[in-house]
Amino acid sequence: MGRKQSWDNAWDVGAMSNYNTITSLAESPVEEGLIYAGTDDGFIQVSENGGDSWRKIPVTNLGLAPRSFVNDIKADLFDVNTVYVALDNHKEGDYNPYLFKTSDYGKNWESVLDGKNIRGYSLSFIQDPIEKKLLFLGTENGLWISIDEGNNWVQFKNGFPSVSTMDLVIQENESALVIGTFGRAIWVLDLSLIHI
User: Fold this and answer.
1) Cα-atom radius of gyration of the chain, to the nearest Å?
2) Theoretical Cys-Cys bridge with 121: which of 51, 88, 100, 105, CB 3.0 to 4.6 Å?
3) b/e per residue, 175-188, with b = 16+ CB within 10 A?
């Protein structure tokens, strides 16, 4: 633009986050009015009355840095008390994966990934709608699968690249996991053999 830009110009022109954005929203399929929201400034919000009032949970309660980014939040498909949240703090130089679970509406949290050999910060998460214990986690370095509710994880390879796995959606009618990547197209994983 004909001049040297200041270091904070990206914020001035609206290209960068100002830490005020809802990044993930989940409504419980088990209890009407139960809603979870995650934000880019390190907060999880819970409403138990359809959004009339909200309870704010800072990610510091989970033991993370104050502005850790909530990439994905998913209410459990079977248990009204449970919700999963995938977070990352790579903007602050922390490339560890984080996936937490609460079984009491967000009052207490436990790490689902502690001690697990998972590479890349967490980007996306989904629970299988048929097999309760089947979980999928997308990270900066690929797709990870657990068949025992997160106790053990394996990286899905089978031709799938080590790539940013940005979004996960299960098409129930097709029994397929649709995987959105950054730069390596959309992949579809057939789940029909699992859903026997």
Assistant:
1) 18
2) 88
3) bbbebbbeeeeebe
Calpha distance 125→154 (Å, rounded): 14
- How many other β-carbons are positioned within 10 Å of the β-carbon of residue 54? 15
- pLDDT tens, position by position, 52-110: 999 999 999 999 999 899 999 999 999 999 999 999 999 889 999 999 999 998 999 99
The answer to whether 10 and 49 have CB atoms below 8 angstroms apart is no
pLDDT band for position 115 (50/70/90)? Answer: confident
Which of helix, strand or coil describes residue 72? Answer: strand
Q: Which two tokens stand for residue 132?
A: 């309760």
Give CA–CA dist 139/122, Å, rounded. 4
Rounded CA separation 157/90 (Å): 24
Hey, what long-range contacts does 189-194 have (CB within 8 A, 24 or more apart)? 189/156, 191/128, 194/128, 194/131, 194/134
158 Cβ neighbours under 8 A, 6+ residues apart: none
pTM for this predicted structure: 0.89
